[in-house]
């Protein structure tokens, strides 16, 4: 995916300037009171989705028209409430200005198109070679060690019987061998190959332009 570079603004979301543009997706990570619910909903474009906690329910709201919304509860949650707007010396709350919605410049659009074209070439080459696309590696969980106790019936009583020292040593050796095997396998795993970066670095371009195409990343 070609996501835009994020822009961050410090301020209270209840103090957003009234002339701010509307959004496709909005998430609020603090409890919203009922009297602020409509204020949050008008931040959406038609077709946009807002997710926020309202009255201890994580709620998803979709704007279906200029004055219509559809909402559904996702799950019960407990969030700290939104901080109420503070006022300046004049007694009025300071408004928070959001970054303007601007069209990308030609240089940025060219970078996106070049990366998209190279990615398409790589996909075609992989299909021609019959190489399946690799899924991202899953993180392996470390299995917790379990101690096994044996039990012996004596009359009508069930008495725990400790493991024999030789059996316990054998179990510890098996666990140690298993951990060693995992460590060796982890060392043999190679990092995922970044084919797009390799393709860019092989292009007959100046190094500065290659760095720009890779978003100045080193890996």
Automatic annotation (TrEMBL):
<feature type="region of interest" description="Disordered">
    <location>
        <begin position="162"/>
        <end position="197"/>
    </location>
</feature>
<keyword id="KW-0963">Cytoplasm</keyword>
<dbReference type="InterPro" id="IPR000682">
    <property type="entry name" value="PCMT"/>
</dbReference>
<protein>
    <recommendedName>
        <fullName>Protein-L-isoaspartate O-methyltransferase domain-containing protein 1</fullName>
    </recommendedName>
</protein>
<keyword id="KW-0519">Myristate</keyword>
<feature type="compositionally biased region" description="Basic and acidic residues">
    <location>
        <begin position="179"/>
        <end position="189"/>
    </location>
</feature>
<keyword id="KW-0449">Lipoprotein</keyword>
<dbReference type="GO" id="GO:0016020">
    <property type="term" value="C:membrane"/>
</dbReference>
<dbReference type="InterPro" id="IPR029063">
    <property type="entry name" value="SAM-dependent_MTases_sf"/>
</dbReference>
<comment type="similarity">
    <text>Belongs to the methyltransferase superfamily. L-isoaspartyl/D-aspartyl protein methyltransferase family.</text>
</comment>
<comment type="function">
    <text>Substrate recognition component of an ECS (Elongin BC-CUL5-SOCS-box protein) E3 ubiquitin ligase complex which mediates the ubiquitination and subsequent proteasomal degradation of target proteins. Specifically binds to the methyltransferase cofactor S-adenosylmethionine (AdoMet) via the N-terminal AdoMet binding motif, but does not display methyltransferase activity. May provide an alternate maintenance pathway for modified proteins by acting as a damage-specific E3 ubiquitin ligase adaptor protein.</text>
</comment>
<keyword id="KW-0472">Membrane</keyword>
<dbReference type="GO" id="GO:0005737">
    <property type="term" value="C:cytoplasm"/>
</dbReference>
<dbReference type="GO" id="GO:0004719">
    <property type="term" value="F:protein-L-isoaspartate (D-aspartate) O-methyltransferase activity"/>
</dbReference>
<dbReference type="Pfam" id="PF01135">
    <property type="entry name" value="PCMT"/>
</dbReference>
<feature type="compositionally biased region" description="Acidic residues">
    <location>
        <begin position="164"/>
        <end position="177"/>
    </location>
</feature>
